[in-house]
Amino acid sequence: MHRMTGRFAPSPTGPLHGGSLVAAMASWLDVRAHGGRWLLRIEDIDRPREVRGAAEGIVATLAALGFRWNGPVVRQSGRNDLYQRAFDVLRRAGSVYPCGCTRQEIHDAASAGDGGASAAIYPGTCRDGLPPGRAARAWRLRVAPGEVVFDDRAAGMIREDTFSEVGDFIVRRADGYWAYQLAVVVDDADQGVTDVVRGADLLGSTARQRVLQDALGLPRPRTLHVPLVVDASGAKLGKSTAAQPLEPSRPMDALKAAARHLELEVPAITSLDDFWESATVAWAKRWRLDATGR
Ligand code: GLU
Asked: Which helix (H) or strand (E) holds 272?
């Protein structure tokens, strides 16, 4: 049996804000309630979107709020060899293929979108080989038809036919960077992550991650996707919107707001240690964890 292991995996595209604090808190409380390990991984694989100093800022803010993680902070930018190895496994198995399509072409060719803001369904243009005169841009995973089913601890049973709802998806981008989907499954497996707790915006990525885990023969961690913090207009309070960084001089206000969002009742608290103690008890109650942590 592997020890219960959770992680927080922020992308350094801006400072920690109310939304990312909720994800960090949920994951850490779940680990604390289970008596597990908690890892901090900086997902700095998307170099063009990285903001200088954001990673250091996130780590410092987490520490100031009383978060404690096991082992050193891991950075995806230093793990290229791992991703390359996984990619080579897929390539040798014939599970990935080069794609020469531009985003616009895929958009134009797709008969219907998925209703979300995400990219159109890939129509499979390059599945059987690059069209003549086309150069490889991205690499895609060949997805088999059939339902992916998983039981999210918050959202319940989720079913997705990734083949028809998403299509063959990118594992290596046209600009040469590894796709988030590939890096995240490789890292979660390499770091022994058993429990992924994160924001509900990533629920839609989970089936793709299952498909990749199966293709690479990796274990499937359990998942729990917590509701997103939204702004007054209902938009996700993300790093790409004008989310305010946390007010460092008032850590308790930020922690209490995040706990309220997670529906955790925390009594009037004086110290950070007391806060984390009470919030852990409240989390275990909220998710009905018994002594075995189920
Ligand atoms: N790096 C992703 C983000 O900041 C989260 C990845 C994950 O938790 O799987 O949105």
From this structure: helix 272-286
